[in-house]
Amino acid sequence: MILSPMPEHDVLVVGAGLAGMRAAIEAQREGADVALMSKVYPVRSHSNAAQGGINAALSEGDSWESHAYDTVKGSDYLGDQDAIEILAREAPAAIVELENFGVAFNRDEHGRLGSRFFGGAEHARTYFVGDFTGQAILHVMFEQLLKHGLTTYDEWFVTQLVKDDQGAVRGVVALDMKSGRLELFRAKAVVFATGGMGRVYEPSTNALICTGDGMALAYRAGANLLDMEMVQFHPTTLKGNGALLSEAARGEGAYLLNKDGERFMKKTAPNKMELASRDVVSRAEQVEINEGRGVDGCVLLDMRHLGAELILERLPQIRELALEFLGVDIIHEPVPVRPGMHYQMGGIKADVEGRTTLDGLFAAGECACVSVHGGNRLGANSLLETVVFGRRAGRAAAQYAKSVGAPRVSEAWLRDEERFIASLFDRPPGERAAALRLEMGQTMTRDVGVFRTGEGLESARRTIAELKERWERVSVGDKGRVFNTNLVSVLELRNMLDLAEAVVASAIFRTESRGAHARLDYPKRDDANWLVHTVCRHTAAGPELSTMPVVITRWEPEERHY
Amino acid sequence: MGVDDPGRTGAPAPGDAGSTRASTERVALRVRRQASPSARPYWEAYVVEAPPGATVIALLLEIRRRPVTADGRPTTPVVWEMSCLEEVCGACTMLVNGRVRQACATLVAGLRRPIRLAPLTKFPVVRDLVVDRSVMFEQLKRIRAWVAIDGTAPRGPGPRFSEQLRQWGYELSKCMTCGACLEACPQYNPWTGFIGPTNLAWVDYFGLHPNARATQDERLDAVLAPGGVQTCANAQNCVRVCPKGVPLTEAIYRVKRAALVRGLRRWSES
Asked: Which domains does chain A have, with CATH numbers?
């Protein structure tokens, strides 16, 4: 790629998964000069790991209101209902757009879109491509990106958000991984679509690239983070390596069994059974495991009764994963699964146009908290969020860019970053990034997991604080400039530690149980005090917490039953 | 990318009931190193501990943890790409004992020793096992691999699909742009300019898709140009190495037929 001495764009989108690509395409349609930057090639983004599908009320008898209500209920009433209404209303058009872009969605007997059931939903409104829906959509979105001839900066890692003298975000400093060179990018608007922070936990279903870089950069730059304690544990991750087995399995009728062969979900969710919302199912599994009814720290996912034909047709990837990593053929045997960290419902506070609390910075996708998922995300609503709010953020950023003048930012930003990176190389041999990350991940899984206690959270707070201190002594052993993954991992670890701290602080702050945040010392949902978002702000003294109201339009909080 | 020690590599996940540090095996390993695109490549030998069920990535992580050669000399950690660790992202494609594999899904057990890891040979090396595969994305432009509609106009429901087309679309949609087919193809190299198996499969897909069919002649013209469909000599290596089982040869056969018809038509009209 040939760079002008000073790359400048109207809109710079960071992150090239579905939300980022959709935002970039929309911003260009709005007439902006757009560039898309990512630490990996777009098709390697984590969107490709989404398996089960994408939700929309498209079938007869279904309605956007029903989809919205299911989402509100799934969120344990912490989702903002105005945003959820937009998500559900715009879903059908978003799916049809993807279909017209060329996604080979499953069909019904008439050749029209065919759907499947997913957890927490009253209708079969999940549209899918086998169990590799994300990958199929990601490729098609990439094709559209190519069609639009957008500028991309592939394998560039953003290290800093850049502001002008008025404090508005007007670009980034980024590291070209191929050359090791830092560059200042000026932009009238920056859109973060940088994805989740799964690797803060160990294990996680997330790809290794999911290190929450955008969330952390925005947080350190002064943006508010919202509801960071709301971390989703997926009920069916593979024993051993923790790989995700899609909810599609249960959507197609799989059973969850304890060691006695009992479908234990009947105790907590007699109506929806295995298809209760994810927080409910994960807790039920953890109770079975904790009370000695598990099998070697797991429960069993049984698909034998679905038959070979359906499994091979609709769940091929699940079969492959179980076969490859555990040697279990799901056609003939149940597969051991357990809850595993999967998704961050919280993120950079963004409104329905993607505007964050920082002027000039927009956010969409998993890194943002709009908030449509509240305390618990429904399966197949995340792919939907990427396209609906990616489009809206791209549009809003392009319109915003028209309203501001040429970005004026000082070269000092670049020089500061160069000094910072040089100081990392200059550190004497000391701590290893990998060791610290592992300790962080295990701490988070143990103390900030499916069930939490005040005591465990305090212990996690101390450990993370200590790890942050040790990070100052982490060394970059690899002194090479070309594709230095060692340097990138040290920078990623810094991002993850800041987020771990925000998650723990937010979890300590919320003294109730709601959605994915289950505190054994505060086991009840407390609407009188906690029907509010947790707001986390970065200060020199650590995370500063406050609350803001949840938007309720038409669905008053009720007790959840599945 | 950078984070290491992932539990999904067959390395014993700490705190994981059921995993054990016992019965690890000492594995001899050779990796082809190259410090930068212009540097001289060389082989370096290591001996690393591998637990049962380890993948090739677990071996590389072990070297990263303790960058020491087989004869005890300290070295730099090996650099490679990885991300999903479940064979969906296509990042960690490399040569394992001369065969193109996804390192995350290649188990150490059953591999001949010493295990030899090398970068793909058909793409420029960036560093060690990292190669620049951007040509794959450039070539998608060459065949205009997209539905050429403007999504701003409301179009109503998408096209109806036959079950047959849907099934075929599924198979072709599994491509993760890993580059294995290009690596294995005897016709693919910088001199032939061959467009490669996966792009021909995409041409087939767009030729069938109701929204993309209308502009299929443009794609067929692209594959009739030098480096196009006639460069394929039907070695069938591509379909044998594809980790996703994409029916590449069948797709290529179909594109060859369509291109022939298009070529004859062009000739008769000229």
From this structure: 8-231+343-402 (3.50.50.60), 234-338 (3.90.700.10), 412-528 (1.20.58.100)
A118-165 pLDDT, tens per residue? 889 999 999 999 888 999 999 999 999 999 999 999 999 999 999 999
Which ipTM value was assigned to this complex? 0.91
| pLDDT tens sequence across A1-15 | 455 568 999 999 999
Cβ(A485)–Cβ(A496) below 8 Å: no
Residues 33 through 52 of chain A touching chain B, CB cutoff 8 Å: 39-41, 43-46, 48-49
For A444, the enclosing helix (H) or strand (E) is: helix A433-447
Cα A447 from Cα A231, distance rounded (Å): 12
**Chain A contacts in chain B segment 161-190 (CB below 8 A):** 161-163, 166, 169-170, 172-177
Calpha distance B100→B45 (Å, rounded): 20
Q: Which residue of A has its CA nearest to B210?
A: A102
For the entire predicted model, the pTM comes to 0.95
Cβ–Cβ below 8 Å for A297 and B37: no
Question: In the annotation, is A9 catalytic?
Answer: no
Contact B96, B88 (CB under 8 A): no
With pLDDT > 70 as the criterion, what percentage of chain B qualifies? 90
- The model's pLDDT over A193-209, given as tens digits with 9 standing for 90+, comes to 999 999 999 999 999 99
In order of their start, the domains of chain B are: 12-131 (3.10.20.30), 134-269 (1.10.1060.10)
Is A24 at the interface with chain B, CB within 8 A? no
